[in-house]
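At this stage, I wrote out one protein, both as residues and as discrete backbone shape codes, and that material follows here.
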Amino acid sequence: MTDTSELTGKVAMVTGAGRNIGRAIALTLAEGGAAVLVNARSNRAEAEAVAREIEEAGSRAAIHLGDVADARAVQAMADMALDRFGRIDILVNNAALRRERSFAEMDYAEWREILDVTLDGAFHCTKACHAALRQSGAGTVVNIGGLSAHSGAANRAHVVTAKAGLVGFTRALANDLAADGITVNCVVPGLIGTPRERGRPEPAHHLTHRTLTGARGKPEDVAAIVRFLCGPSARHVTGQAIHANGGAYFGG
């Protein structure tokens, strides 16, 4: 029998949780019983909508607007979670930027913007939450990677590098934080059907990959794996990159 409240008493902090995969993760962790700190960079309406869904379903939620590339904003977010809920057991580093630009046209500011949010943001969030995760006794960090970090993609040198860095960060932290009782894993979505920002086309690398079924995955497919990794049944799983791409990619 599946335990539908395996995260009761836990507190999760989910970055980039106002829409798409981040939203699905926040809602799914709350469905498992966790209280959730919903982070968004600047869109208050989206964050409040997710928090409202969580509360209407019977769990607790709070929101914090802040850029994960800003270490002070991240510390304020962690402090808010501790003030509101008293603990942090789960950190999901989902916030990321996904741009497309040829390497020839890319300038350093564009390169840095992607790494600042995706990779440095994960660093800042994990540093800010480390003490609380250690006190949890069963702390969990889940980084959200990307298919192109493993397959490569044109016009995405910054995104591919940042997401590949998350895999290395995951493996390093799994070693460093094991003694603190903290598991660290990376969930790698691929070909997930999500709404695009107005005016933004489908990523070009999506056109070179196909799922085995021909169907795109859903944000909830990714969220289900995150929920498993945050629960008591996954305490022996750490340092892994777990792919959710419908068979679009089979490599390591």
Remarks:
- The first helix runs from residue 20 to 31.
- The beta strands are 11-14, 35-40, 61-65, 90-93, 140-144, 183-189, 241-244.
- The chain has a mean pLDDT of 93.
- DSSP finds seven helices and seven strands in the chain.
